[in-house]
Amino acid sequence: MDRLIIASNRLPVSIQKSDEKLTVTPSAGGLATGLKSYHKNNNSIWIGWPGIDAESEDEKNAVSELLSKEQCLPVFLEKELVENFYDGFSNATLWPLFHYFTEYTEFKERYWLAYNKVNELFAQTIIENAQEGDTVWVHDYQLLLLPNLLKAQRPDLNIGFFLHIPFPSYEVFRILPWREEILKGLLGADLIGFHTYDYARHFISSVKRLLGYDVDFNTIALENRQVFIDVFPMGIDYEKFESKALEVQSKPIQERSKMHQDIDRFLMGMPDRKLILSIDRLDYTKGIPERIKAFKHFLTKHPEYKEKVSLLMLTVPSRVDVEQYQNLRSEVEELVGSVNGKFGSLNWNPIIYFYRSLPFENLIELYSSSDIALLTPLRDGMNLVAKEYLASKTNHKGVLILSEMAGATKELGEAISVNPNNIQDVSDAIYKALTMSVEEQSKGVTTMQKRIKRYDVHKWASEFTNALTNSQKKIAEHQARKVSAKHLEQIKNDFIKAKQKVLFLDYDGTLQRFYGNPEDAKPDKEIYDLIDALSLNKSTELVIISGRDKNTLHKWFDGKQVTLIAEHGAWIKHVNKDWKGRNKNQVKWKDNIRPILESYVDRTPGSLIEEKTYSLVWHYRKADIELGILRALELKTDVSNFLLNQELEILEGSKVIEVKETGINKGTAASEYIKDTDYDFIMAIGDDWTDEYLFRELPETAFTIKVGTNKSDAKYYVDNYLEVRSLLKKLINTK
Ligand code: GDG
Description:
The chain has 25 helices and 29 strands. Strands 5-4-1-6-7-8-11-10-9 form a nine-stranded mixed beta sheet, sandwiched between helices. Strands 22-21-20-19-18-27-28-29 form an eight-stranded mixed beta sheet, sandwiched between helices. Strands 14-13-12-15-16-17 form a six-stranded parallel beta sheet, sandwiched between helices. It is elongated, with a radius of gyration of 32 Å. The structure holds GDP-alpha-D-glucose (GDG).
């Protein structure tokens, strides 16, 4: 990999100003702490907002200089821009929407404009600093437009994007007024990574539904590029947490920090005393009020735990200027007060509440000393705190209670999983954790530790960047097979030299673009002109080879100097001759298959049946895209039960399932066509899966060309039907 440029809203360090002096402090948050060591070791450049509103050019220069020592480059943002971009579109539009808090989501044009502006400023800074072929790794929801801004101006860059928060279901995402722009922005990346498979499939589903692109497993086929989607659950710097935990726990009691000594005193205040820990930013996604209510329920249900257990809540101040966060703070403090007021005593606070952030060392003391971690977000992209808690459990004793709405739950199957909205469920989980045997604790913790140690943040970052390099290789491979000016020259030269030539041309998606209504795809003047011009050359035979029924092809091309092959080869009409069909299968198979297809039409609005001589076709191009794909899978299974001994097969095309008599496909039809003539130039162009038969069966010397970016056995690629037409134009007027 060439040089790496990391781009995120915040840099791994912040610049602060006090008494006219600038100071550098490490930024909090999972992304900054997680990637920091990777950044240092890989000699990358990190581009982001320094967190300060620089007042003058001199100050900007001073900030830049301080940052350059950290391999960082600033994007300076003015105060008003930050308000609309950061507090506005990022945190009042995207953050609530992507976490399913639609009621908090604000749609304001000025937020959107600022968001565009900031993404453009990032693009500008990166472009000014990126060398040819550099890799850019863009992070998170503040920069969703950046990949495409970069790709449009600098196609040479390898662009990766990672989303740290959930990608919501299509039903929620579609609410966003700028949904298409956001998707297109992201699709400028070559690789897009998510924490979980669910987020990835939500994204793919939105792309399919809103932009209509074809998706083949994890590859999205754009008009002229491919975008790869994959899952990379973010890890932590395991080593760092483990070693710090060993260090703080091995200190003699008198040398421990004040906080650590307080915890020791609390735990030793009574035999069997237990400490439950929760750590999160004060955010409505974290389920903090629900957690307090569940703890209250637990204390009511289990009075025997009075004075024996406390919940230590570290809530880190966050987005303090935003009203919802201020309201949340009041609500949380009221709830804490009411629980402590109701259950507490002179020497026992059921809830120990901190509203601040703590130094790293204190954080580790909390992790390693507490018996249970109670992490119950209502929605969370990953939740690194869960992993950090486990890594700090160097004595392997501890229990993790984790919300099933956190991305981390997918990897931490041995944790006690809870629905954070179910207060009874969370209260039961607390009881279960308090009564869990040491052996069981140790078994769970050790298993999870092994997993998160193996897939730590270094592995995560290298897996992502390796996948980005691999996607680059696949893209390069595809690029190399694209019909270039050089290839065109070669095709043209061979065409001129050849004595007997044949061109097999698919119709829909190859000579003509796809239309929602197949009837609208009738040939335009340019197609007729092309056919007429090409057929002037006496040594050239033109064959239109299509899955369409013979009547349509007849209507469109009768009288033209072109051979027509209809229904994938079931019918052929040589120039100036009549249609010739295959012998009809005597078995009345259609009567058996038709009712099955009809049941699918009934259950899949927008789908329809087409009857051809040798086949029955179920079309679902106009149906809901996901339902169509699902039904197509079902239909294949259903129909395959009827195929035995019937000499029938299933052919899957673009949004169609065709049940047809065996041995009929474009490959056998083309082989049949060329078998008696010695052609010294054969070319085949097609866009569909059914054209793959053609590409495979034609002789090795044939020029086979795939339209689009999907995987193919063809030797070459072109982007779309317009490129097909311009390629054919090059062959006109040659003798
Ligand atoms: C996004 C996603 C996803 C917290 N309090 C203190 C402190 N922290 C550190 C923790 C941890 C980080 O902050 C919080 O972890 P999150 O996982 O919640 O990460 P965020 O950056 O807030 O959020 C989230 C994450 O990105 C990574 O992709 O997991 O779902 O929302 O590292 O240790 N650190 C210190 N003092 C504190 O008081 N020193």
